[in-house]
Amino acid sequence: MYSPQVAERIANPRNVGELISPSGTGDVTNQVCLDRIKLTIQIEGDRLTDARVQALGCPPTIAAASAITELIIGQVISDVCRVNRQDVISTLGRLPPAKLHCAALAIEALRAALEDAGLLES
Amino acid sequence: MRVYLDNSATTATAPEVVAAMLPFFSEEIGNAQSVHSFGQRARAAVEKARRALAALINAAPGEIIFLSGGTEADNFAIRGVAEAHRDKGRHIITSEIEHPAVLATCEALAASGFRVTYLPVSSEGLVSLDRLRAAVSDDTILISIMHANNETGTIQPVEEIGRLVAQARERGQKHLHFHTDAVQSVGKTPVDVKRLGVDLLSLSGHKLHGPKGIGALYLRKGVRISKLIYGGHHERDRRAGTENVPAIAGLGRAAEMARNGLQEQILRIAHLRDRLERGVIERLPGVIINGSIEHRLPNISNLSFSGVDGESLLIALDLKGIAVSTGSACASGSLEPSHVLQALGLARERVRGSLRFSLSRYNTTEEIDYTLDALEEIVTRLRAMSPEGERLQAEPSF
Predict the structure, then answer these.
(1) Is A57 close to B309, i.e. CB distance below 8 A?
(2) What's the CA gap between B199 and A19, in Å, rounded?
(3) How far, in Å, CA of A103 to CA of A62, rounded?
(4) Model pTM?
(5) pLDDT tens for residues A85-120?
(6) What residues of chain B lie within 8 A of the CB of A16, using their CB?
(7) Inter-chain contact A56–B388, Cβ cutoff 8 Å?
(8) Does the distance separating the beta carbons of A36 and B311 come in below 8 Å?
């Protein structure tokens, strides 16, 4: 049902935790299924230097939370702002159609963190 | 290590069952309807299996109808009674926690003019006899209440319902019938159709170490039902279609094996189930047993783990070679929780963190201990990565 990339991130989720003094925090919950992703990011200059994530939810939500950190750490802000749902899905190989909302939740967490850091208009 | 703890979904076909089936694929190839010796040897195998299955549930061989499985048995029982007795009444009583084979059949009948009452259950998953008694009306023709639930293992008071039905008949309600779906219970706990007082009982081969694609309906002698499948005059003109002789022979062997040493198997499996539950509760805070602890099958444990998602737990266990199932799945952003756990009135969080462990005679102490180690590691890890991790570690509860 799930790709090896999703399964691998369930066994070994990346960048788990919470930054102590983050530049921005995105804490989002899907109100229907109650899956939750909390992303903290560190911005230095024009670059996103670090990120940590916490997640509660089904396997694709945990994997997408993991994937979003892999996509943004070390990137320049302009590139981070362009990361989208398809990038998350590509990192995970594929997601079942009924689970695409999990990738959307990860993007929502990123947008919220960037807004909190003052890098995106809400 | 590979550990299979999803025996309520399906069981391993016993090697003895496979051995009993093999001759009927390419050696004893006869059609059991044929009059030549090939056919008669196939017929003998079918009747031997029928006797074995009848003995397992204390029925007469002539009361056993072979068919394709539990779903067909449920459809046949419910539709068969409804259509044969619709001139006597149009009311059916069932429960909210039945298998979809029962619920969907009742819904289809409701769409064609029948009235269906879905009885609620208690927080332990038990049907109330008082509610059932109150629901029976003059036009009730069928009560269909499962023997044991497939998700929680809760055993319903079927014997008491059987007595209630007998009393209603004594008062003149001759057209009232009682069906039980015993797919999960046959081979796991003693099932005696006379003691239970049922008119019809569904069972399935692959839930008791028999092959898939075979099951049976017990139809008490004298009970009239309509056919579901039309064709030849197989199964005493009740279920058309060439007998699946290898599968029937396998089911017969599985029935013999289930009958021999049932009590010892029950004790052994319950001991493993208790070891699993005790171990989980000792090692991990925030774990609750779902369903009745007193009235349940020996092989099923339905547990809720606070602060984790059942599907994530399932996948993480699968990566360690352990197969279980969950009552929670989210699809397209909507949670599709188990209708059974919902009927128990469990909070969303508790349904979400639910896992079903279902054991069989083939599980070992080593497998249970391996599962306990894996659960401890995975639940701790999933809780630690949750945004509610600190709360969960301090006070994990529902």
Answers:
(1) yes
(2) 65
(3) 10
(4) 0.94
(5) 999 999 999 999 989 999 999 999 999 999 999 998
(6) 384-385
(7) yes
(8) no
Q: Which phi-psi region, left, alpha or beta, contains residue B112 (left: φ > 0; alpha: ψ -120 to 50)?
A: alpha
Instruction: Mention every residue, 6+ apart, whose C-beta is less than 8 A from residue A64.
Output: A37, A88, A92, A95, A102, A103, A105, A106
Given CB atoms, is B311 within the 8 Å cutoff of chain A?
yes
Chain B residues touching A98 at Cβ < 8 A: 331-332
Nearest to B351 by CA among B304, B285, B394, B297: B304
Hey, which residues does A50 pair with through a beta bridge?
A: A42
For residue A106, list chain B residues with Cβ-Cβ distance below 8 A: none
Q: Which two tokens stand for residue B204?
A: 């399935």
Nearest residue of A to residue B392 by CA position?
A: A56
pLDDT digits (tens, 9 = 90+) for A1-47: 899 999 999 999 999 999 999 999 999 999 888 899 999 999 999 99
Which one of the listed residues B134, B315, B330, B335 is annotated catalytic? B330
For chains A and B, CB pairs below 8 A equal 68
B106 among known catalytic residues:
no
The percent helix, strand, coil of chain B (3-state, each to 5) is 45, 15, 40
Q: Among candidates B134, B96, B130, which has minimal Cα distance to B116?
A: B96
> Residues of chain B whose pLDDT is less than 70?
331-335, 393-398
Q: Are strands B325-326 and B354-358 parallel, antiparallel or unpaired?
A: antiparallel
Instruction: Report the residue of chain B nearest A52, measured CA to CA.
Output: B385
Q: Which two tokens stand for residue A107?
A: 């993007």
Asked whether the beta carbons of B106 and B78 are under 8 A apart, the reply is yes
Question: Which chain B residues have a beta carbon less than 8 Å from that of A57?
Answer: 309, 312, 330
| Cβ separation B311–A59 shorter than 8 A | yes
Whether A32 and B333 lie within 8 Å, measured CB to CB? yes
User: Is A81 one of the catalytic residues?
Assistant: no
Q: Indicate if the pLDDT at residue A74 is higher than 80.
A: yes
Q: Which two tokens stand for residue B395?
A: 């006070």
Please give the structure tokens belonging to residue B64: 């056993």
What distance in Å separates the CA atoms of residue B372 and residue A34, rounded to the nearest whole number? 27
How confident is the model over B312-336, as pLDDT tens digits? 999 999 999 999 999 777 766 666 7
